[in-house]
């Protein structure tokens, strides 16, 4: 594992501001913009002036180690600055986000606000264009079929409008660190370094929560009627069992759209798989911001995870990254890991997608129970 102090620079109009004593960068697969907080505190010297930094300035956040090329982390704007001083010291705090943060804050205003026959990539381009953002497709990613009609809901943000479309195509929209956006998919990349207990993990936690899981998922809905079938004859249902929940806990819900019995079962399987995946949360802290090959940990990528004491041994998705640098804990990365099934799109009646794939997260629960029963074999 690369374990060197990162050199962080805040670049504004070609000038790199360095020497930050604390730094935190947060990126998440469900956030279209990354954010940063930089801090500097040192002794006050007579004649010193405050840094010429102000909210609203365009900026880039870069990081490098050794003599390597600087990697772009965030390209956007400073949101907030805070300057303070005392009798013998002064402090500066700077906060900012990717330029794509404007899509989260601002309303989607288009006239007429409806597109016919556009695919997800074309919609992303249209929604990002007013904010001066470019959109690219990650290599090998297909934007999926065109939407017959897609309309902005009154008052929703540009990000919400885009997110609705992307969820139907199993796509993510992430900042590229250079001021643009990239459409990609979960698992499109694979981390080059595995996370292994006793090798490169400083600390780890795993939470198994069954409170939102049920023994039986029952989806009821309607199929289109005909002269021969109407009323009660058009009522259909699908059901699936979660064998990881041993006591009787039924969950009944109504389908959001019409469909046949096969679709209702797919909808039930999707609900089961989604809740299974979300029932486990794994958080791991490692030294440094980089993998063994010097590359930054890749957001949205799959990573091999081996923590026998926590009962985990499988591929998980890097759903969130928190890069931290300070005098107390050095340079660390906190990785929030999720089962890839947690990002499955809702089944599409027309496309016939099934939500049953992926790893059964219930296996993790059983492994955790086995590990707990055999914990005498492990040293604390």
Overall description:
- The protein is mainly beta and 380 residues long.
- The protein is built from five helices and 21 strands.
- The chain has helices spanning 101-105, 120-128, 158-167, 261-278, 362-373, and strands spanning 7-12, 15-17, 22-28, 35-43, 58-64, 71-85, 89-98, 114-115, 135-137, 150-151, 172-175, 181-184, 195-196, 203-208, 216-222, 235-241, 250-254, 280-287, 302-307, 312-326, 330-338.
- The strands form four sheets. Strands 1, 2, 3, 4, 5, 6, 7, 13, 14, 18, 19, 20 and 21 form a 13-stranded mixed beta sheet that branches. It has a three-stranded mixed beta sheet with strand order 9-12-11, covered by helices on one side. A three-stranded mixed beta sheet has the order 16-15-17.
- Helix 2 (120-128) packs antiparallel against helix 3 (158-167).
- The radius of gyration is 24 Å and the shape is globular.
- The two termini are 24 Å apart.
- Residues 229-233, 351-365 and 375-380 have low confidence and may be disordered.
Based on CA inertia axes, which overall geometry fits?
Answer: globular
Number of helices: 5
Helical/strand content category? mainly beta
Got a strand count? 21
Taking all residues together, what is the mean pLDDT?
Answer: 85
Q: Roughly how many Å apart are the termini?
A: 24 Å
Beta-strand content bin: 35-45%
Give unreliable regions as ranges.
Answer: 229-233, 351-365, 375-380
User: What is the radius of gyration?
Assistant: 24 Å
Residue share in helix: 10-25%
What is the helix/strand order?
EEEEEEEHEHEEHEEEEEEEHEEEEH
Largest sheet: 13 strands, mixed
């Amino acid at each position: 594992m690369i374990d060197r102090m990162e050199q962080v620079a805040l670049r504004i109009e070609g000038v790199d501001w360095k020497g930050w004593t604390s730094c935190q960068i947060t990126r998440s697969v469900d956030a279209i913009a990354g954010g940063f907080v930089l801090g500097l505190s040192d002794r006050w010297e007579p004649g010193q002036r405050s840094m010429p930094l102000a909210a609203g300035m365009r900026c880039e956040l870069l990081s490098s180690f050794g003599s390597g090329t600087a990697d772009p982390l965030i390209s956007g704007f400073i949101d907030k600055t805070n300057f303070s001083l005392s009798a013998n010291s002064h402090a500066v705090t700077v906060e900012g986000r990717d330029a794509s943060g404007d899509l989260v804050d601002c309303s989607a205003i288009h006239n007429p606000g409806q597109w016919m026959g556009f695919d997800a990539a074309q919609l992303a381009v249209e929604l990002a264009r007013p904010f001066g953002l470019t959109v690219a497709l990650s290599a090998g990613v297909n934007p999926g079929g065109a939407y017959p009609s897609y309309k902005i809901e009154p008052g929703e943000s540009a990000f919400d409008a885009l997110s609705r479309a992307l969820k139907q195509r199993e796509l993510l929209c992430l900042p590229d660190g250079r001021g643009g956006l990239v459409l990609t998919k979960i698992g499109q990349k694979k981390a080059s370094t595995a996370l292994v207990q006793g090798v490169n993990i400083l600390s780890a936690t795993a939470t198994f929560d069954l409170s939102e899981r049920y023994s039986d998922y029952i989806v009821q809905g309607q199929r289109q009627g005909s002269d021969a079938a109407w009323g009660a004859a058009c009522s259909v249902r699908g059901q699936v069992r979660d064998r990881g929940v041993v006591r009787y806990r039924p969950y009944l819900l109504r389908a959001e759209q019409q469909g046949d019995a096969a679709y209702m079962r797919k909808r039930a399987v999707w609900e089961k798989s989604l809740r299974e995946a979300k029932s486990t949360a794994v958080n791991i802290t490692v030294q440094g911001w980089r993998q063994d090959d010097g590359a930054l940990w890749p957001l949205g990528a799959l990573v091999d995870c081996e923590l026998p004491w926590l009962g985990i041994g499988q591929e998980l998705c890097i759903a969130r990254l928190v890069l931290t640098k300070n005098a107390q804990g050095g340079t660390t990365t906190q990785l929030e890991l999720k089962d890839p099934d947690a990002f499955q799109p809702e089944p599409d009646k027309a496309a016939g997608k099934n939500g049953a794939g992926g790893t059964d997260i219930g296996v993790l629960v059983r492994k955790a129970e086995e590990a707990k029963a055999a914990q005498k074999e492990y040293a604390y």
